[in-house]
Structure formats: C-alpha cells, structure tokens
C-alpha cells in the first residue's frame, strides 16, 4: 500500500532560492532590479503523483495479462472489474424489462375480455357461458381459454415481482387508520391498473410507471376509510398540499404562516385552504375517556344543546308573559288573529285563508285586522318592553 506524502511547511524552507533579473519598464534606463523567487515544490509533487498513477496502471495491466499467476482466494488481492459481469447485468435488466412488457400485454388482453363479459352480463342479467363469451369476443372457445390462462399467469407474476415495491410504498401509509393488509390489496389493484395503461414505446420502466398508480390507489383508500367523517379525495389532496406548504414555510420563515402566504405558495384559493383547515379537526367519540387515569367521559362534561338551560327557561317565561300582557291591550278579535297567525301558545301558525274560514270572513278582512293590531303594538312603550328579547334565539 502506497500512501501520498503530504507537503508540509518544511518543503518551503528546503526549496531553492534564485536571483532573477527583471528588466525595468522604462527602456531608456538600463538598470535591472533583483527579485527573490521562492519555489513552492508543487511541481515535484505533481511529478510524484504522475509516477504513482503510471505504476498503478502498469500493475493492473500485468494482472490482466497473467491471471493464472495471481491467487483469486487471496483477500488482499485487488479486484478487477470485468466487462463480462457488466454485460451480464445489462442483459439481465433488458430481460426483466422485456418480461414486464410482455406480462403487461397479457394483463391488457384479460382486462379487455373481462369488459366484454361485464357488458354481456349487464345486457342478459345472468352469468355468461364460455361459448357466448367467446362469440362476443370474436375468438374460438379454446383460444379464449388460452388467453385467459396466459393473462391470469401474467397477473400473478406481475404481483409477485412488484410485491417488494408495494410493501415499500405501503409503509408510508402505516398508522393512518387502515389495516396494512388492505393497503397491500390496494397496491395490487394499482399495479393491475398501471399494467393496463402501460406502454413500452414511451421509454419508461414498468416499476417506475406503476409507482403512481400504487400511490393513487393507496391514497384513495386512506382518504375514504381513515377518517370518522368521510371527505372527498380531492379535498384530501388539498389537505396534504396545505400541510406540506405550512411545514415548508414555517421552517423557512421561522413563523406560522397565514392563509394568504399558503395561497401564494401553493396557488390555491383562500376558500379551499379554509375548508381544508376545517377538515383537519380530529373526530373523536364522546364516549371516550378523558385520560388514562381518569374514568370521566366526555358525555359527562359536554352540555346537551337540545335542552334549554335554567337561565334560558326563565328568560323565555318572562318574554311570554310580556307578550301576553301586550296582547291583552288589544281587542279580542285582534288578539285572536295574532295568536292564530303566529302560533302563540299551543296553536300552530295558520294562513290568512284558514283564519278567515274559522272566523267566517274573507282573508282580506283578516289582513286588515292583523295590520291594525301590529300598528297598535308598534309604539314606544311596547318597544321598551320587548327590546330586551331582540337578540334572543
């Protein structure tokens, strides 16, 4: 083993110094100025490096010319790259690419035949026989069986060869509320979808092309079943985009970004960003316990909004009393019309025609009575009494 000799500060002291006569700029003056030039020794260092590289090349050529003299079992012996191994690996890769293209064509044939079968079943609404299936596809029964067996075998081989890729992508969706087996099944569906659309003429590898379909199938499954409340897949993509943008902006700017900055960064509208932020809320069960050491549930703490509070009950009772006190100032016919018209007490709201039939008058007469009653109630005293209940729901 040869090691490079590092140049130190002592090389500069050992370097030779010479006096070099440099002519002056002015040609009329025939004087010379003496300067001291210190050589750094880099020229000698470069010479030594070139000499070592030449020695290494000569050693490598001698090893290739006489391979029988070298001991291949010696662990200290330097390994020589062989062109045969490189050619074998390239041939192996070409063979894999060729096999994947052939298997994708087999999957395409099976997909087309199954589409024909589904159309026949929708038309006849019964299970299609193999003979009618072959007639609809325009092939013989034996050829149909051969195509089906070949396509099914191509499916199995493709799923077996891409299993490691599916497992690698499924790890990114681990722990999002979907079982790992379901993720693998969705990845296999994505492999078959990509095989149906794969075209070798575009110059892509099958494994590179099918990654998008595996990712799409898994992300769709997670968006549908990972949450307690289902949201559209398009909105889940927006949520992921907003989360990534928020993380990138917070790390770069050092502060939490607002919706306007995220909209500029992602190109999305502010309305979409707001809807995505609302969907980011975690959905939980009200029967869940608050903590590990506390046995109290959320149902014991959260108030029931369907039941009125005692304060609201008392408030509504006072309002009801004040309204009936104002109605007592009106004539009996006017009071009766307002009660039936607005459903006060235990009555239901009625139309003018219904009230007119009850009182044996026309609906125009009921409208006049209602208008006169409301005019009487719109005075300063009644407004002062009812002003406290304006903002009550």
TrEMBL record:
Which keywords accompany this UniProt record?
DNA-binding, Sigma factor, Transcription, Transcription regulation
**Keyword Secreted in annotation:** no
Concerning Gene3D superfamilies, the annotation shows: 1.20.120.1810, Winged helix-like DNA-binding domain superfamily/Winged helix DNA-binding domain
Q: Which GO terms describe its molecular function?
A: DNA binding; sigma factor activity
Record's compositionally biased regions (Polar residues)? 60-74
A single GO BP: cellular response to light stimulus
Residue span, RNA polymerase sigma-70 region domain: 159-227, 238-313, 326-379
PANTHER family on file: RNA POLYMERASE SIGMA FACTOR RPO, RNA POLYMERASE SIGMA FACTOR SIGC
Protein name from the UniProt record: RNA polymerase sigma factor
Species this protein is from: Handroanthus impetiginosus
